[in-house]
């Protein structure tokens, strides 16, 4: 490409994640520092289709680095999935003189970017943000750590009351197709057992036996963490009741996990990724996703990125089973 | 009475609440400072029945003031509801030389105290602790403020994501028979509407119309807080969907509200109430409940206490309706 | 008075406190709901002098209930202490048609109100907000509980590291003339000793001996909490080093205590007080301070209010000495 | 080596850090799951010298994963720096049959390990834990993220009150020889300027000019973050006062940064490193440090580790200057 961009757009799309505001701020300020103008596109791709835009400068992002959610709002867009929708979106770009786009979101957002860039003369850079951390191309997605700590804080509180009443708790955390959050949080919480969607599990071996071993080792309360994509917490609780005679309490953490002020890691990662995305545009790059790999921020090809399968971190699984239930 | 007690027991009973540990600590240390010995009774009344006890001194309560839950465990006891159960419990008291009891819990705990003291020669003092704050005789029960802040923190996080997605949220907080927590938290959260068990409510007037007014006033997200005793959050969400065409998200905060490190107010109240309870025993009192009334710690007759009906605070309701939905 | 107000002003003055925004929101929304218009006056009395104002409606206070600080800014004003300053301020009121004022702050703010109302035809209502909780006429001032929990969270963290290293800590909390915060936080933290400005203290008896007793009772770390008005943490640490041979660490919590999202108690109290203040104006009252007394929100005469001396709560002191150091 | 260890020791040494307990728990449980016995050595190397030890099993580490500080206590040991001290320590090992050691701490701790292992027949594995994150061989040290979030929470609170009063704040965070924490926190906090010990700084260019630019860009409050090793916050504040006429407030966060419950990242990292350390011993390795490199947990030679110079992360510095003050 090699074009020098004068005016770029930034949008958030898909489910929101803590740190999106910090990423927006970094995009806007980095653009300014590199001599570009930045337009905020509101409500995801719909904003580009409908011309729902707002001019942004250093001042408009002045107090958002520490705020959860996204000041540009977010939404899913069926219309952008159609060629017609993307054409409308391109008209907005043409009208405004936008020739570069930074899109903050997940795989669906990047797929939208690609379709758009394939059809129209626009440079696109993706920034991964999702509390599920299930984007294959990057080790880290913005929002993951804040969500993990939100879930962990709740489980720590649950632990207090479960311990007082000597009860069993089944907690459902977010993660439709990925168990990263469940595994990470379960490890941090000292869970008795963790169930994830990536792996087959057997109630007798992976839940009942672990509870038994914990009881034999002296525990009188048990914490089972399940990813929503693995099973339903209620079903697991029902089985525990039937099979072990315990009376478990179910907690579904739900959307609370999506909100909250981003923590240090998410603000720093978002700031670095936002800066990197704009640098990509300044360098004339397009169709790239900013990623965190091997401890570094870098960028990868967006087509390759979308092909990279999501994987559950192996190290954490091994440790989890060594630390819980391995020994009676 | 006028007896000088030499050895007293302390127990927690019913649902646990943050600050119970601070109350136990205060009872144990106050007893020591007034020349009495203190025995911890574990697992509520069951502990007295089964002799599940532990000797406590200054050191055994050294690092618990800031811990959630109760180090003495808690449970409900069917056996203590029987005369035979209470006789067994009394034998434990006789064996150990316990002639005074401090019981930390709710109305059910105090009813147990009364039945016990009516049949046996034992002085009983109750300390109110429940996150519902639904004990009629006292303005404040240990655990309420911590639970309220736990719920509020979650709702603040929800607000972030509801705002980003311009959605409606229905949140269910604890409170089977009392709406105090829902009202308090709803007021603090700037809720669009609050539903409590003490008051009849009409979906059209108390929910739908308030959402409409909020929309007309510029809001694009809405927060409905319901006490579990008023209705189910899922039902309210269903009605909102049908009646207003919104797609609300349901959050049930659940047992998380019972846990967590007690905050300043609960630690201070628990410390003061624990001290006061022991002073009551030292003064030869029995059948008293320590209460917070008119800004002061004092004690009231336990029979009267159990007759005092729980009331929803009027002031907060009035303010809530002035601040939300009153004006378009 | 009996005037019906059509346009009122609201300002924050003196040191800021968490919950001021919730109070502003309540004033603005209550005014609207009672048919009055509300003008925000920025930077305290200076804003009235300089015409630094902003029109406020339901929307302008839409997302501030959970924010620390004050969206109207605050400042101290030397000019308003002069008759000329107050005359300039009155001209702004006349120009804008403001005939009622709600001033959120401390004793100094109320003194300003009185001087202003004595000279000019304007109704004034004060709302107490200060993290020191040192306003004699009210049991509770907005911001106190949030500040106490901020300090307590820090002390809880300190406790971890002091315990690991078996060290002594001296923590200085805010409070020039009032020890309320120090006493409250010290009690909640399980402090070894607390020093407040209202009471004479003797190093040997009130610090050294308490540390010795704690050591004899098994403790190996000690937490001394001092109000900044009582002494300097550094001096106390110096004496501990000389007299007991320990090597204490000093922590001065400072302005961090003034900030942070207001907690449930401060948001609810601020909402109720803001509403009450506007109701006072609607009822034709002037020269009143909204207060929290005997568990209720009410209002008192401002002249009387300023005469009411601040007092340290007696109950908490007694409990503190029973729970720490009283017994070896 | 290749010895199979039957009994190993674990200790924490140097300054404590949140997550040390999670590491101890992982060492103890991993040892059990691999068939080794684990002895806790208290108060660092002193415990080995004095035989201050405690037998540990699954149960003794049951509720510590979420606790700050270290349950084994920590201390610096002058005696262990002498050959005689290390000989005494070895006698304890011989008496107890300890032939492997896991030492949790910083560079000083690892130097102690090496000296010990060079003189005596004992396998040593180090785990990096320090809130400064200044250990050259590893990208991440246990405690860093929790400390960063503690500092960030305080700065977020400060921001509220600085904004209300339109003031300048100078905050001193920990870091004698390393600016990592200051840089990380400063980036996350949106600081106006950050001063670190690794880089020369010029007041006029690196502080005054940045404040001026922020003012020109519309800011009315400024946040200067300094690492304690770079300069004193008081001196910077003094210069700002003299040079710019502002009246800055100084905050020294101090030891509070060392405490607090470890967050998810520190608990997970500690669990993984603890497990890895025991696996090293099981594999017959010695003189290794467990590290986090390129996104993975692995181990490196201890001699090499101690030679690896600490470096300030370059990426974060570049971003910081792009996002603050770069553009007027």
TrEMBL record, chains A, B, C, D:
It catalyses: beta-D-fructose 6-phosphate + ATP = beta-D-fructose 1,6-bisphosphate + ADP + H(+). Its EC number is 2.7.1.11. Allosterically activated by ADP and other diphosphonucleosides, and allosterically inhibited by phosphoenolpyruvate. It comes from Hominiventricola filiformis. Residues 7-281 form the Phosphofructokinase domain. This is ATP-dependent 6-phosphofructokinase. Pathway: Carbohydrate degradation; glycolysis; D-glyceraldehyde 3-phosphate and glycerone phosphate from D-glucose: step 3/4. ADP binds at residues 25-29, 159. Its cofactor is Mg(2+). Substrate binds at residues 130-132, 167, 174-176, 228, 249, 255-258. Belongs to the phosphofructokinase type A (PFKA) family. ATP-dependent PFK group I subfamily. Prokaryotic clade 'B1' sub-subfamily. One of its GO terms (molecular function) is identical protein binding. Its main location: cytoplasm. It is an enzyme of class 2 (transferase). InterPro entries: ATP_PFK, ATP_PFK_prok-type, PFKA_ATP_prok, Phosphofructokinase_CS, Phosphofructokinase_dom, PKF_sf.
């Amino acid at each position: 490409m090699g074009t020098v961009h004068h005016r770029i757009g930034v949008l958030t799309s898909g489910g929101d994640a803590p740190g999106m505001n910090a990423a927006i701020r970094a995009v806007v300020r980095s653009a300014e520092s590199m001599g570009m103008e930045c337009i905020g596109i509101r409500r995801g791709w719909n904003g580009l289709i409908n011309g729902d835009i707002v001019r942004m400068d250093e001042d408009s992002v002045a107090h958002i680095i520490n705020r959860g959610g996204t000041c540009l709002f977010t939404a899913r867009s069926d219309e952008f999935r159609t060629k017609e929708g993307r054409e409308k979106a391109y008209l907005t770009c043409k009208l405004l003189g936008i020739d570069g786009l930074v899109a903050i979101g997940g795989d669906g957002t990047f797929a939208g970017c690609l379709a758009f860039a394939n059809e129209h003369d626009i440079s696109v850079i993706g920034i991964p943000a999702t509390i599920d951390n299930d984007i294959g191309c990057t080790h880290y997605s913005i929002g993951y750590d804040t969500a993990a700590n939100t879930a962990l804080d709740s489980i720590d509180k649950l632990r207090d009351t479960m311990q007082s009443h000597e009860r069993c708790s089944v907690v459902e955390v977010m993660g439709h197709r990925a168990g990263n959050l469940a595994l990470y949080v379960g490890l941090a919480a000292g869970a008795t057992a963790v169930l994830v969607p990536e792996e087959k599990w057997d109630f007798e071996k992976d839940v009942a036996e672990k509870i038994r071993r914990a009881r034999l080792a002296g525990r009188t309360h048990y914490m089972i963490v399940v990813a929503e994509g693995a099973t339903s917490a209620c079903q697991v609780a029902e089985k525990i009741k039937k099979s072990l005679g315990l009376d478990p309490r179910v907690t579904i953490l739900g959307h609370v996990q999506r909100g909250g002020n981003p923590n240090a890691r998410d603000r720093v990662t978002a700031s670095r990724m936002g800066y990197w995305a704009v640098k990509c545009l300044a360098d004339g790059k397009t169709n790239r996703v900013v990623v965190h790999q091997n401890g570094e921020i870098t960028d990868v090809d967006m087509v390759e990125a979308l092909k990279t399968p999501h994987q559950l971190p192996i190290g954490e699984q091994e440790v989890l089973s060594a630390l819980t239930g391995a020994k009676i």
